[in-house]
Amino acid sequence: VSSGRDRDHTAFGVSAAHTSAPRDGPLELDPRGTRHLVVAELATDAVRRLLCDAARLERAVDIVGCAGCDDEPVGNSGRPADAQAAEQQIVARLSAASVGLRLYVSGSESFVGRMVRTANRMGLSQAEVRTEVHGSPLRRVRCVHCRATTEDVSTTLARCDGCDRTLVVYHHYSRRHAAWMGFQADAEVAGELPDVPSPCP
Amino acid sequence: VIRTIDARVVAVSQPTPTIRQLELRAVAGDLPTFSAGSHVMLHLGGDRPRRNAYSLACSPWSTSSYRLAVRHLPSGRGGSRWVHRELREGDVLTVEPPRNLFPLTRTARHHTLIAGGIGITPFMSHIHQLARDEASFELHYAVRDESEAIFVDELEALCGERLRVYVDPDGAALLGAMSSDVLPSRPLGTHLAICGPAPLMAALTAAAEALGWPAERIHVERFALDQGEQQPFTAADLTTGRRIDVALGQSLLEALEGAGWEVPYLCRQGICGQCRTRVAGGVPDHRDLYLTPEEKAAGDAIMPCVSRALDSPLVLDLPGSPGGEGHAAH
């Protein structure tokens, strides 16, 4: 399985150096924060390290751990089943929170993107959110033509769930949609697809 | 070159023993609109002409007149003394168009505004804007003595319950209320804006940072720089070797302008960074708030509006040539 981070997009005149892709990690406790909220999709070393740091610095940490996050302590409201349930739980916590809180997110790229989007909507800035991406490199892709979001994309060319077009997954990430931009791959000459290493399944 | 406005002083009042309030109207036509938090540079008279920055203490859509409040600073460079002693109703002043180093963060979910003394002035336009936008805000206003509070009726009308006035000779009551009550409890997405004496702003900024406020949520308006001790010195142009004497009480920028160089500038207070000039030799005496500590240590750039030199000559790599010929083509 190729990593989602090093796909070859040179065919489209862009490179990873000129992308809006969010940079992340490593997950470290920000000692300037007065409250710390962790949202973890997976029980990872990054989360364990963060909890160790918090214990050492005697900082209380509130944790929202997902179903796959088996051996971690869970928050008071129980373990969310999926990203959507996790989003609801952090909305509930952030709506009552004050400036000083730091949010830490660990999980797949898609999961992290959705949590960061939710946090930004609740008023947290980039300086108040730290992330570390692990696990699945599958991406969310938003079609610029029909505006549908296709989940679990792993290839540079992908079929849009909304309009069935073949899309190029471009190196442009929307924080507002928590998704990568996709546009029609054969817009110039119908049926003429660019030569990319990973063809559409 | 900045287009200036001729404005007549149509009203002068003295709301407190140390604050003089001015109302200015354009000699012809309307004044420009401005964004909340803006200030203007007034060209002031006196034995040595100077420019001083004053916040526009009125609503941002006020184009018929501008209102300013000038505090008399006995230790200042003389501009406020001239306004207090010499300026009369009916006088015409040269005014540079408004500009803004203290804008509102319009995306904030809540605004916590903190004013100390004459630092209330930029917030007058802020609260007019926020009240009209029906934004969530609060204003904390500290004065040393009840008699020093200005604009109170207008503030009460615009802010209602959102205004809190502190009579606080040393700032301790304000700082205490901020640290124990306000700063720990403001909702996510709140922005903090502070204007007042430099020690108060430093203490409030430190208190906010200690309570987890990231720097990007803290905004300060510095209206006065402590210029400290001054010595005359000499600057030199790297290209021509020409020497420029900088007198006591004169800034390097003023001396360069006097010698014919057109150095770009905005604030003339060491804040905006516009007049940054390369240093090719000599040791700058940095007094600005713009360069980073690393840049100051490197010693290869100076903000001539406020900074000086520790030895002479201070060799400058000046753009273009004096006399307004602009940048040399090559």
Q: What is the tally of helical segments of chain A?
A: 3
Cα-to-Cα separation, first versus last residue of chain A: 14 Å
Tell me the overall shape of chain B.
globular
Distance between the termini of chain B: 24 Å
Taken from the alpha-carbon principal axes, the silhouette of chain A is elongated
Largest interface chains and counts? A-B, 17 and 17 residues
Biggest sheet, spatial arrangement of strands of chain B: 4-3-6-1-2-5
Report the helical percentage of chain B: 10-25%
Based on CA atoms alone, the radius of gyration of chain A comes out at 18 Å
Order of helices and strands of chain A: EHEHEHEEEEEE
Individual helix count of chain B: 7
| Rounded mean pLDDT score of chain B | 90
The SSE order of chain B reads EEEEEHEEHEHEHEHEEEHEEHEEE
Strand order of the largest sheet of chain A: 6-5-9-8-7
The chain-level structural class of chain A is alpha/beta
Uncertain ranges of chain B: 324-330
Biggest sheet details of chain B? 6 strands, antiparallel
What attributes does this structure have?
heterodimer, A: 201 residues, alpha/beta, 5-stranded mixed beta sheet, 4-stranded parallel beta sheet, 3 helices, 25% strand, disordered N terminus, B: 330 residues, 6-stranded antiparallel beta sheet, disordered C terminus
